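Homework help board

Subject: predicted structure for assignment chain

Our instructor gave us this sequence and asked us to write out the predicted structure in token form, then describe one feature. I got the tokens but I'm not sure how to describe them. Can anyone check?
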Amino acid sequence: MKKQLMLLLLVGFAASASARDTLFIGPTHLRVSEDGIISAAPAPAPKETFDEHWAYHYYPAEKKLTGKGVTVAVADSGISSHIEFNGKNIQGQDFTLSASIEDVKNHGTGVAGIIGARGVNFQGVAPQANLLIYKIDDGSRLIGPQAATSAVNAVLAYNESHPDQKIAVLNLSYGVANGGYVPLTQAINRAYDTGVVVVCPAGNTGFPGVHYPANLSTTLAVGALAADGQHAYPNSSYGPQVDFIAPGDRVYTTANDGGYTLMSGSSASAGFVSAAAALAVEGLKKKLGRYPTVAEVKDSLRAAAVSITGISPLQQGSGLIDVTRLEKQFFPEK
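My token output:
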């Protein structure tokens, strides 16, 4: 009886309430209108489930090009042991004062996973590519052009002593706004001349102005794609130097604690393009009987790219690289 009386009092209050408001009583799925009518509130729309693997839907796991026989160097914060890298015999060199290629920043491990994870919980875009690690960032935020220069020069030295198993792609996770460093520019130019594809993130300021060294004509600059696949990632820097766009928003990848993480930014995007470049090198090597030039790799990737409607060319360059279209250059349909 007391409960019924309380409900009647609440209904009476609702009837005299302002017409602007709908008053809720008891459980949130009930409501009382201004006329005292009790009804069920409409159920809230279910939250859209985020697909953690959205980025890899653009890069089919079953493909003819896998990066086999191609070495990709990753100049970043190092790498940590992970089940996704088992059997890869990853080696590297430290250009910081940490005396180890162990990744304490949880960045280089993620980029390496995007490129070459072997497929335990997800597969990298070039799962059979060889990975060589150059640590240029110890996580102290003191990363400088000197370490990046040392890494590029190490690639050049490696290739001189391994002409038949050279490093064909360098993912250089280094960038500064309004920057420039002559020794690094010279090293990158030499890498270009000797057939090393240097891939760099466009930057993460969200403003015009592609970061150095991505703004050089001898590198591939990569912007970041948002998870909806229809817009650029808001923090992605942009400008006429952008060559391609790739996923860069909550990308599922390897973490330095042996688990997995979601990585955002144009560094993640650069990993996808570095892997695609490795696939192009693999196809071109078979087709030409030699290592391709950077221009040949870039032309191959451009021919495979698809422009995304609604995204400015300043943000996407030639567009998103379609691996299926890339493969058709080397395995034409009969």
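Reply (TA_rk): Your tokens look well-formed. For the description, you could write something like this. The radius of gyration is 26 Å. That's the kind of observation they're looking for.
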